[in-house]
Amino acid sequence: MTRGLPTLKKGLLLHTKHHSIMSQKILLTSKEIAIILHRLACQLIEKHLDFSNTILIGIQPRGTFLAERLKTLLESDYQIKDVALGYLDITFFRDDFRRTDKLLEANQTKIDFLVEGKNVIFIDDVLYTGRSIRSALTAIQSFGRPSEIELLVLIDRRFSRHLPIQPDYRGRQVDAINNEKVIVSWQEHENEDAVYLVTN
Amino acid sequence: MKELSVNHLLGIKYINENDINLIFETADHFKEVINRPIKKVPSLRDITIANIFFENSTRTKLSFELAQKRLSADVISFSAAQSSVKKGETLIDTVNNILAMKVDMVVMRHSHPGSAYFLSQNVKASIINAGDGAHEHPTQGLLDSYSIREKLGEVGGKKVVIVGDILHSRVALSNIYALQMQGAEVKVCGPKTLIPKYIESLGVTVEPNLRKALEWCDVANMLRVQNERMDINYFPSTREYAQQYGVDKALLDSLSKEIVIMHPGPINRGVEISSDVADSQQSVILNQVENGVAVRMAVIYLLASKIK
Predict the structure, then answer these.
(1) ipTM for the complex shown
(2) Which residue among B29, B41, B46 places its CB closest to the CB of A93?
(3) Same-domain pairing of B160 and B77
(4) 20 to 30 Å CA-CA from B178: which of A28, B148, B203, B257?
(5) Cβ separation of B32 and A138 shorter than 8 Å?
(6) Does the beta-carbon distance from A98 to B32 stay under 8 Å?
(7) Residues of chain B neighbouring A104 (CB-CB closer than 8 A)
(8) Which residues of chain B have a CB within 8 Å of the CB of A94?
(9) DSSP string, B125-158
């Protein structure tokens, strides 16, 4: 299984290959992330109650960690049974094929159920231009016609949208300019829960 | 940076192991795509592909066309029987006329070895070789390895015997290159008249006895006897060939282990393999066909990503 993960190691972040000095600022600490995850879980329950007709879809590669966290939280802390979770890879639906120098590498899609007539919640870590979500809206149609689709993101980068796409649930809104990068790291993968704002 | 090392797929000989791995990883994703309720992705919306077949083909042509359509490419197909080639037009002229209609990629099958390479040197388009004479058939070589990888977990370290008409077979050559590149051991088995004289210079060994070859191998790739390419009699009769080099269920069951049976198709049932073998659990013949579409999608996707 490939997930195309940018690795983030503490201490290494300030040195890049190109010798440019980056500065980083912490946007969310692990404690803040924990509080936000609980709030997002409660907001989801308020709308979707027992999740009997609702499906969580983590957008590959980085939305899957958040989606897994929310599923675990809903099941363990809020006693919701068997929350359906899938992963959607949008690579083959992107609008920049042959427009970047890099090959668009795919990740695993894992949707073991039909989404026909379901309430689908797309989950991603950062909402930036909105192009990934545009691709995801097309990609999900290969698995049926959902009744409705909502969007949940941990970080909403305001003022940077290329398309008219907005989240229904957001963890934190951030004003970041174009040469700044928002990096979300997860305990499961980078050994800490944190969100950084990195400037080149 | 991950990408193919080539701009054309002319043969396995011209690519490397990293390319094969990248093609297989990409094919894994396309295999998932072609098993979805809606089996189409829009990646190649603005790419036009011409399938030019100067030699008969059913399965390869269908497989390529389906792969292209699943990727949303525009496709034009033609076979030589209906073309101006019959009126004396040269290959370069034929292809350049097609390219003048704004075609980005050409998939070609031709009876002359080296024709795909020749084309890649002379026209401006990405070329995929769909078989050039008795030279190479790279996508078949790839999908055979992919099917072994799927069935046995990996290709490296496996023992593969290619049985039958090696002399006329482009499938054999592409398979030998692909398998060796991935660290598999290859033997060939067949009547001496159908084994090329210098085959051992490729690093394969010849085993004239079918039973010994099958006892040795993990996978047996049974090739079709290509009667249409045989200008002389290479063996006394089809019946004798079937007795010496045909695999039937009794022979398979008498082996000390269970081996995987492959065949690139079309099968001459009762000649190189019997019906009960072709339809048995050990045969992956139809998996090869399914994997063919996924592997070709991967090759086309990866080559198209290099068209700027």
Answers:
(1) 0.79
(2) B41
(3) no
(4) B257
(5) no
(6) no
(7) 305
(8) 43
(9) SEEEEEEETTS--HHHHHHHHHHHHHHHS-STT-
B36 and A143 within 8 Å at the Cβ level: the answer is yes
> Using one digit for the tens of pLDDT, what is the confidence trace for A35-66?
999 999 999 999 999 899 999 999 999 999 99
Tokens describing residue A107:
């990740």
**Locus of tokens 């490397």:** B16
Strand order in the sheet with B48-53: B74-79, B48-53, B105-110, B126-132
Distance of CA B195 to the CA centre of its chain: 19
Cis ω for the linkage preceding B266 (within 30 of 0): yes
* Structure confidence by residue, pLDDT tens digits, B38-93: 999 999 999 999 999 998 888 899 999 999 999 999 999 988 766 666 677 888 88
Name the band, by pLDDT with cuts 50, 70 and 90, for residue A177. Answer: confident
Domains defined for chain A, CATH in brackets = 30-178 (3.40.50.2020)
Closest CB to B304: pick one of A98, A101, A139: A98
Dist CA B198 CA B202 (whole Å)? 8
Say which CATH number the domain at B21 has: 3.40.50.1370
What residues make up the domain containing B44? 12-137+289-304
**Closest chain B residue by Cα to residue A102:** B1
The model's pTM is: 0.88
Q: Are residues B66 and B196 in the same domain?
A: no
